[in-house]
Automatic annotation (TrEMBL), chains A, B:
<protein>
    <submittedName>
        <fullName>Alpha-L-rhamnosidase C-terminal domain-containing protein</fullName>
    </submittedName>
</protein>
<dbReference type="InterPro" id="IPR012341">
    <property type="entry name" value="6hp_glycosidase-like_sf"/>
</dbReference>
<dbReference type="Pfam" id="PF17390">
    <property type="entry name" value="Bac_rhamnosid_C"/>
</dbReference>
<feature type="domain" description="Alpha-L-rhamnosidase C-terminal">
    <location>
        <begin position="600"/>
        <end position="638"/>
    </location>
</feature>
<dbReference type="InterPro" id="IPR008928">
    <property type="entry name" value="6-hairpin_glycosidase_sf"/>
</dbReference>
<feature type="domain" description="Alpha-L-rhamnosidase six-hairpin glycosidase">
    <location>
        <begin position="264"/>
        <end position="596"/>
    </location>
</feature>
<dbReference type="Pfam" id="PF21209">
    <property type="entry name" value="Bac_rhamnosid-like_N"/>
</dbReference>
<dbReference type="InterPro" id="IPR048932">
    <property type="entry name" value="Rhamnosid-like_N_bacteroidetes"/>
</dbReference>
<feature type="domain" description="Alpha-rhamnosidase-like N-terminal">
    <location>
        <begin position="49"/>
        <end position="241"/>
    </location>
</feature>
<dbReference type="Pfam" id="PF17389">
    <property type="entry name" value="Bac_rhamnosid6H"/>
</dbReference>
<dbReference type="InterPro" id="IPR035396">
    <property type="entry name" value="Bac_rhamnosid6H"/>
</dbReference>
<dbReference type="InterPro" id="IPR035398">
    <property type="entry name" value="Bac_rhamnosid_C"/>
</dbReference>
């Protein structure tokens, strides 16, 4: 943060932009020509909002104003004495002295928003807004700094792509764009009259299936002369089967790839090209799904699901570090008060939302966003606390979806995995409340979390089986051992060393425990394996499972993958032949796993003010990569003989590594902390630490 | 209610149509070319709504569907097996057997709404809707029964009016339409290019004041050939000053009077033509203000103010008996949860909203609307109860407006008049709760009301001064005597006979008590005078006060009138020369006073199942009139020698009258109930009771 003059930016009532945008994109989902509206409440923006700015000027100043909506200006509570044009972009003369300018805006189509720029006065967070609830709150913004682009237009970037192959089959034309992509289709010089049909396929089979494809367009063309024709709806596909009535012709067909411009601040390379390819395809998968919000998948839902989004946030932190999309997504998920149901109707998805704030704060150190969200965090937590059963546990009400994973399990009653997520939610609330100086609530949430954690382990820890059991229904324990509660407990660091050892052997490495089939839960499973030191296992799994998708021709990672299925059933899901999403954000877990556990970089205090660097080669010869932080990147290179770390522009790192011989360093003092384990403080910023490892073959 | 097959009607999520419509009309207010958005929260409709109907058919049936919004149909939870056109009006084949049809609709511009009509299945209150809050509730409707007119279009009637005079003054043209009117202006054969300016005036002075007028239009015309031009915004006016650039010409200018088609079911005539004229102008004033909602006034706010609307409901019951506009208005006023402020920000206006339900229920007997409103009545009452001070009284918080009247009074602290309105609000809640079978809340509200009424009289009744004092601030009684609490106590029947007598002499007839200047509060003042038997006084006041406005040329009644002001100041208000509204609903009080106290007709049980007929001649030779009820009209004629009552089609009347001699009746038995006072039960429906009065001169 600097004290320089603030930049003008579009401002609005808190959360309104995100809620409006979310409602408008949520209904773009289609299934075979019909809309699929989401089955949760969609909240929208306030149409009637007032903005105010108190200022003190030595001399009069002309303020240029652009307003999204109908508006009127008041100065010191009355109509402005000086006239102004009643146009969207206008200007008003601010008088010298101390005054208050009010801009009252109405807009029931898009959100009321204001952009103002004068010599010293600009629209920014120093302005206040009200929806006329007798409270003035800080105006919200989201880095939309161009007067010509009000928040109505979400700005994407575009790239024109030609098909890599065009094939003519039985009167149809098959376009292959080489890999999964997203956007509209552009026909140059389209001429004639008739119907044009486009059947989109993430797989070749889907495109060839005609109206059995998940999405298609049937468009009426009536051109008197050849002219450009662009399809009206953005679609996800690799293949398109084109069917055109006889009277139609065109000169060329291309595709406008539409995407959010994102900088790849993170990187990963290693000695295994298959792992590198997995990282690249993961990043592309995540990139396609990172748009207005963090979406689940590109072809089907394109919805904001809290559980999916949470993983995307964690992956995003290791490659794009785009926090605007994270903030937009968290706001959209939460909606407005009153809370009537869990987020996306799913109990676990409410908890992931809370937990996301913990990870957001650790990654960014941005307390101001957390503060803006705090009232809604409190009311959502109230909603949860009011739904606890007599034992203090959360169990599904009839209207709740208790999900956890697409898998065979009985989620009625008190599900242990849910209680663990609830517990971390309470811990997050305790941390946030204390950071914001709300000590009373901080204490309360801390006490609730501590009590809950004790009760979870009293009830669900099974020493004989060596793990957490599934849950309890109507007072009857369900002693089934599944990976979910155990891997959650590992990632949340709720187990002592003895428990970890038991869980490792009896659950995580136990082949008789039910296998996990979704990349979604493989994310936590493999993270848990990393936490118990099984990095080699994780790398092998990556090669087999993610590599398995690549072997089947995947250009992005999938919603679900079962290596045991025959190829012709790989795209089945939800009872339909091509429903499975082949570009699903939760498929991109390797970004996170490789960044956090191979490069070994993670924050230890908010905003990377302290961070850990603990690279691990596993079975690789060398690794190299970059992890973004709020203030520059951290870079790591490691092979058998050399370890190099470039620190970021602020923050203090702590390096941990293993060396069988005696290592040396160019700066600082190595501490031996265990058998072959060394630690080095990294206080120098923007600095390259070079460690020579005397690695002996064991 | 009948068991006949229900008519198809447009249905939607409860309250959504009214909230959407209210938001869209609330921002039509303008002041000299700028918008004046309301200073309260505007709530809008849910954009994402699902409709469902469970049906059982002996044979398949084709259902015609019109949907306002994007939609998809599901049968028994899945996509419909039979195809349907994806157009706004479509049809679907319902299979035989027991099934559930779901229509999922998204509309973020207008409200999601459905119209469906088959041989046996139609869209009506048997359908359920959800906004995805896990609750299915009864679909709402409002007698919009035409498939071609979805709820997006509020349908008005139009009448083409020519100016009664056209005058040319200093390059301008002055149009006079003879009386206050509302709508757009139509220029036939408008030709040329240039600016056209219309300055609207409720008074001649206002139209001639140019940009000092409250409303005006400055329009750009560019016609290549003569063609029709209609002004874009509806305005209220009697006069228009037209200024046109030289290049412009037109063949004829007329006005499209826009109004809600309403039947005058009530009537009033008497031997005094001035009173008859006051009744006529009152009805016209009310009619102009009765549109999408009950508006305060036509020129300036055109807003829905609860205090104003409450009086309009009461007047409406004596002439149009249009309950649809009452229901729309009550829903719009209440808005959505959470409640954050009083209605229109005004404490008394919250109470009038509650009290309106009492009067609505008495007039209509319609418990179903009350039931639909009950959850929001409860949450608004919770809001009030949570704002009571330690003594159990309501006092203004900093963000509250404690209004009562435009008058000199100190409304800080505990204002007695507010407590009386609060008390009747609690009584209304007690009645409604009991009617709906919510006995626990019924008891609670009854107890709260009883306690409050006791406390009010303990604290504010001043036996020495013979009335209720103004209030208390910081523990200090404000012993000032004003009419407000006393006339409220009279109309709410909170005074015993001794108290009534004291209030009559010391307050209501006491010339040293501050005079009331607004027709708004004159409504309650004159009602209170009627309650203490001062009908002659009321008739005199009507001739003087309302007649005084007529003498000044009024064609509709005003927002405020002070006979003492010189003519050139009569249109001043809020510091501006022409701000006063000359067509203000609260000016139409005579409709109510003449119906309730001269014709003497009012319900005594819900829906006029029992009603009172107590006509009073006052100083008039004869009176004659009709009062509408839910089931037909009640008619009364009375002169010195004859009294005739025609009963409605159901309900039992009770006739009371005074006769100094011995009267006779064509049916039933007269009971003498006091000195010259008689009572007659009217059990025959649709029947003319004729009473011969032997009136002797006293």
């Amino acid at each position: 943060m600097s004290n320089q003059q603030s930049k003008a930016t579009w401002i609005w009532y808190p959360d309104d932009y995100e809620l409006w945008l979310h409602a408008s994109v949520s209904v773009k989902r289609q299934f075979r020509g019909y809309i699929c509206p989401p089955f949760w409440r969609l909240d929208t923006a306030y149409s009637n909002v007032s903005f105010r700015k108190t200022f003190e000027l030595e001399k009069p100043e002309r303020l240029t104003l652009s307003v999204q909506g109908m508006f009127v200006l008041h100065m010191d509570g009355s109509m402005t004495p000086t006239p102004y044009e009643r146009t969207p972009v206008t200007s008003v003369l601010l008088p010298a002295g101390k005054h208050e300018l009010t801009v009252k805006v109405y807009n029931d189509r898009m959100i009321p928003a204001v952009y103002a720029e004068g010599e010293t006065i600009v629209s920014d967070g120093s302005w206040e807004v009200t929806c006329y609830d007798a409270k003035w709150v800080k105006a919200a913004s989201s880095n939309l700094n161009d007067i010509a682009y009000p928040p109505a237009d979400f700005r994407f970037a575009y790239q024109s792509l030609e098909p890599v192959s065009v094939t003519h089959i039985e009167g149809a034309t098959l376009l292959d764009f080489g890999r999964e992509t997203f956007g509209c289709v552009r026909f140059e010089g389209m001429a004639g009259k008739g119907k044009l049909r486009l059947y989109y396929g993430e797989s070749l089979g889907e495109a060839m299936a005609g109206e059995e494809a998940e999405t298609f367009d049937e468009l009426e063309i009536a051109h008197d002369r050849p002219q450009l024709f662009v399809t009206p709806v953005t679609r996800a596909f690799r293949y398109i089967q084109l069917q055109a009535d006889e009277g139609l012709s065109w000169e060329a067909v291309t595709h406008d790839y539409e995407y959010l411009p994102l900088e790849r601040r993170g990187s990963f390379r290693c000695s295994d090209e298959r792992i590198n390819q997995i990282w690249d395809v993961s990043v592309y998968t995540l990139h396609l799904n990172t748009r207005e919000f963090m979406y689940d998948g590109m072809k089907r839902d394109r919805w904001v699901w809290s559980g999916d989004a949470y993983q995307s946030f964690l992956m995003n932190n290791y490659v794009f570090f785009d926090q605007d999309v994270t903030k937009r997504t968290l706001i959209a998920l939460r909606g407005k008060d009153p809370v009537q149901l869990h987020l996306n109707t799913i109990m676990d998805y409410t908890f992931y939302w809370f937990i996301a704030y913990y990870d957001y704060f650790m990654a960014t150190g941005d307390l101001s966003f957390v503060e803006a969200s705090y009232p809604k965090m409190l009311s959502l937590m109230d909603f949860c606390l009011n739904r606890r059963n007599g034992e203090g546990f959360m169990e599904g009400h009839p209207e709740d979806w208790v999900f956890i994973d697409w898998a065979d399990m009985d989620n009625r009653g008190e599900v242990a995995a849910e209680q663990l997520l609830f517990c971390r939610s309470l811990e997050t609330m305790a941390i946030v409340a204390k950071e914001l100086g709300d000590l009373e609530n901080g204490e309360r949430f801390h006490r609730l979390a501590t009590e809950l954690r004790t009760r979870i382990f009293e009830l669900f820890w099974d020493e004989d089986q060596g793990g957490l059991i599934h849950g309890r229904l109507d007072g009857q324990l369900n002693k089934r051992i599944l990976k979910y509660p155990n891997m959650f407990a590992l990632r949340l660091d709720y187990l002592n060393d003895d428990q970890k050892q038991l869980v490792r052997e009896n659950v995580m490495l136990n082949a008789s425990v039910q296998k996990i089939k979704t990349p979604y839960m493989r994310f936590y499973e493999l993270e848990a394996m990393c936490e118990i030191g099984e990095l080699d296992y994780v790398l092998r799994e990556m090669r087999d499972y993610w590599g398995g998708m690549l072997d089947l021709g995947a250009t992005t990672f999938w919603e679900e993958y079962d290596p045991a299925l025959p190829i012709e059933e790989q795209y089945h899901m939800y009872g339909d032949k091509y429903r499975k999403s082949l570009c699903h954000a939760w498929g991109a877990a390797p970004i996170y796993l490789l960044g956090k556990y191979t490069l070994g970089i993670q924050p230890q205090a908010p905003g990377f003010s302290r961070y850990l660097v603990e690279p691990k080669l596993g079975d690789l010869d060398w690794i190299e990569g970059t992890v973004p932080t709020p203030d520059g990147e951290i870079k790591v290179f490691m092979n058998q003989t050399r370890l190099s770390v470039v620190t970021n522009r602020s923050g203090i790192g702590l390096l941990r590594f293993t060396s069988t011989g005696r290592p040396s360093v160019n700066e600082g003092e190595l501490r031996l902390i265990g058998h072959g384990r060394y630690e080095l403080e990294l206080p120098n910023t923007d600095y390259r630490y070079e460690i020579m490892l005397c690695q002996e073959n064991e």
